[in-house]
Amino acid sequence: MTGDAHGTHGTHDVSDMSAEEYWNHRYSESDRIWSGNPNAALVHETAGLPVGRALDLGCGEGADAVWLARQGWHVTAVDISQVALDRGAAHAEAAGVADLVDWQRHDLSESFPSGVFDLVSAHFLHSRVELPREEILRRAAAAVAPGGALLVVGHSGVPHWQHDGHADMRLPTTEEVLKDLDLPDGEWEVLVGEERERVQTGHDGEQRTLTDSVLKVRRRPAD
Ligand SMILES: C[S@@+](CC[C@H](N)C(=O)[O-])C[C@H]1O[C@@H](n2cnc3c(N)ncnc32)[C@H](O)[C@@H]1O
Q: Pairing with 221, which of 54, 75, 142, 190 sits 20 to 30 Å away (CA)?
């Protein structure tokens, strides 16, 4: 995750909220939630990939999408929250890459952007409210062009020091993510599949270690 800039995880009851209400509310709580920096795993795992069309699922305030655009990718950036998308668009404008990013609002449990992509990326696509993540990630794999890559990065389990924020989410290991994807035999190769530790500085200035699941798979090119 690009870092929770303010550290409020919202421990209030969210059971009555739709996903859209929850996320718009969450983003409206402050001017900025995430750090504005791209995820380290994205930067690391896309190094050396030929630039092309990228899809960022659950793009939030757009730091990854803007970073990709700055590298020359044509990006479709998707989120359920219009508040977050508007921030992303402003960020892209300020970075001079507005024409390279198409910001699309989708509730990914209901609709999905059209097209195929050389890179489909989903970073920390987790939610405290309803999110059929496994189905969305299978749809994401289907949107990868021959020779393209799917990059899925998420929290792998609840950090031992955190007792509330992630308690009601499934946070699968890399192996579980791969199993859930149910990729057809022979069509895909696993380029990276590992748990990776990351140190995050909290809003209280304390450093904490998180474990991310990092999965990068490639659809074999057409013969
Ligand atoms: C934990 S944030 C991660 C944001 C960003 N990818 C990052 O790494 O910082 C999860 C994002 O998924 C989005 N999201 C949650 N449910 C969604 C859904 N059903 N459809 C589309 N986006 C969704 C949220 O609005 C939020 O921006």
A: 75
